[in-house]
Design brief:
Elements (H helix, E strand, L loop, with lengths): L2 E6 L11 E8 L2 H9 L1 H4 L3 E4 L5 E2 L4 E8 L4 E6 L3 E7 L4 H10 L24 E2 L2 E2 L4 E8 L5 E5 H4 L16 E11 L11 H7 L7 H15 L7 E5 L5 E2 L1 H10 L6 E3 L3 E3 L2 H7 L6 E2 L2 E3 L6 E4 L5 H19 L8 E2 L1
Parallel strand pairs: 2-5, 3-5, 4-20
Antiparallel strand pairs: 1-2, 6-7, 7-12, 8-9, 10-11, 10-12, 13-19, 14-16, 15-16, 17-18, 18-19
Bound molecules: flavin-adenine dinucleotide and uridine-diphosphate-2(N-acetylglucosaminyl) butyric acid.
Length: 338
């Protein structure tokens, strides 16, 4: 286990901001992680768990130990007539896991194709896209408690998943390292193509026989058209969560803006895309130094090159203030600001 000092995180966050951490270690085995967490030398040190850095904004250097999760391995653990259970180590790339499922004809994650990041980070915010969320295929996860290195298992209800939310973003924030995630996949697909432009894209691609591979291809196509590639321009996907309003608040705003896009969530309320609010406030394509709002997507904040985390954070705060001013709605960041 090599612990590096005064380490640059520029290549470890998709915003590409230049920050350093005091100490950095890459973890490739559970034993070495437990050894590290129980070592008195490191016990009191602030720690940050990092996957691929695609949902973090470093607003300053990190005075502590960054633990980069690189545990690898995907295996089939059980099977019955309808389902196959798999377990993936936290450091696997999420899209590689989706490809593994596609290759094995296992359905359930095809709509979640091409979401950046690691498998271990996926339960953190219950990743979601194109009408599907991780929680629908999630079985359980294994995590290590940072305070004592103890292994704990969390099932679906213990994770308290919500829209871009879980217990690990709330009560258990910074308390556990997720080391593996178990999923239950379907042998017979239930195709989900009602959301967004999937149907039109399948038609444009002249797909005749629907398959999980075809849905994955369509989702990939849409994502590549809509979202900037972090390898070309620094970003972390949607910067804010889309607000979910109770019916009365929704009706009031809908009356003023009948063109307002929205989705009805049976359990939660009326979800209005945050990008719409931001565009209405005139932010789309605007720049503050090297920090900016993407020209094609108002919900994606970008780093044009040398933007610092603090500049991007200030831009986000200005956006929040103007949306609050115009619509009396406070946008909540989806990105983890450190
Ligand atoms: P990181 O950014 O490294 O970490 C994110 C958070 O999780 C941090 O708080 C970190 O401390 C914590 N964490 C990471 N790994 C672990 C672990 N093993 N144990 C405990 N805590 C951990 N998200 C969606 O939900 N849907 C989308 O459609 C989507 N599209 C995106 C598109 C783009 C272009 C980008 C850049 C991002 C997008 N995201 C999307 C956000 C991002 O892909 C997810 O949040 C992803 O799960 C982050 O994975 P990561 O490994 O990069 O996590
Ligand atoms: N919109 C605008 N202006 C814009 C962008 C969007 O008005 O500049 C409005 C349009 O009405 C558009 C609607 O917002 O139809 C929805 O836009 P899009 O389909 O791009 O989806 P989104 O709401 O911006 C959400 C997720 C994405 C996920 C997609 C597809 C959140 C915060 N974001 O984005 O997740 O990939 O739907 O399911 O829920 C992420 O979490 O990082 C992420 C990219």
């Amino acid at each position: 286990m090599k612990i590096q000092e005064n380490f640059s995180l520029k290549n470890y966050n998709t915003f590409g901001v230049e920050v350093n951490c005091q100490f950095f270690v890459e973890i490739t085995s559970i034993e070495s992680l437990q050894e590290l967490l129980t070592n008195p030398l490191w016990k009191a040190m602030p720690k940050l768990i990092l996957g691929e850095g695609s949902n973090v904004l470093f607003s300053q250097d990190f005075s502590g130990l960054v633990i980069k999760m690189s545990l690898k391995g995907i295996k089939k653990t059980a099977e019955n007539e309808d389902h196959v259970w798999i377990t993936s180590a936290a450091g696997e790339n999420w899209h590689e896991l989706v490809l593994y499922c596609l290759k094995s004809q296992l359905a359930g994650v095809e709509n979640l194709s091409l979401i950046p990041g690691t498998v271990g980070a996926a339960p953190m915010q219950n990743i979601g896209a194109y009408g599907v969320e991780l929680k629908e295929v999630f079985e359980q996860l294994t995590a290590i408690r940072l305070s004592d290195g103890k292994l704990c298992v969390f099932d679906q209800s213990a994770c308290r998943f919500g829209y871009r939310d879980s217990i690990f973003k709330r009560e258990f924030k910074n308390q556990y390292v997720i080391v593996s995630v178990g999923l239950r996949l379907n042998k017979t697909p239930i195709f989900r193509f009602e959301y967004g432009a999937i149907k039109e894209t399948l038609a444009a691609m002249q797909v005749k026989d629907l398959s999980i591979q075809a849905i994955s291809n369509a989702v990939i196509k849409i994502r590549q058209q809509k979202l900037p590639d972090p390898r070309k321009i620094g970003n972390a996907g949607s910067f804010f969560k889309s607000p979910i309003l109770p019916k009365e608040d929704f009706l009031a705003i809908h009356q003023r803006y009948p063109e307002l896009p929205y989705f009805v969530d049976e359990n939660e309320g009326y979800k209005i895309p945050a990008g719409w609010f931001i565009e209405q406030c005139g932010w789309k394509g605007r720049r503050m130094g090297d920090a900016g709002v993407h020209e094609q997507h108002a919900l994606v904040l970008v780093n044009y090159g040398k933007g610092s985390g603090i500049e991007i954070k200030r831009l986000a705060e200005e956006i929040q203030a103007s949306v609050k001013d115009k619509f009396s709605i406070l946008l909540t960041p989806e990105v983890n600001i450190i």
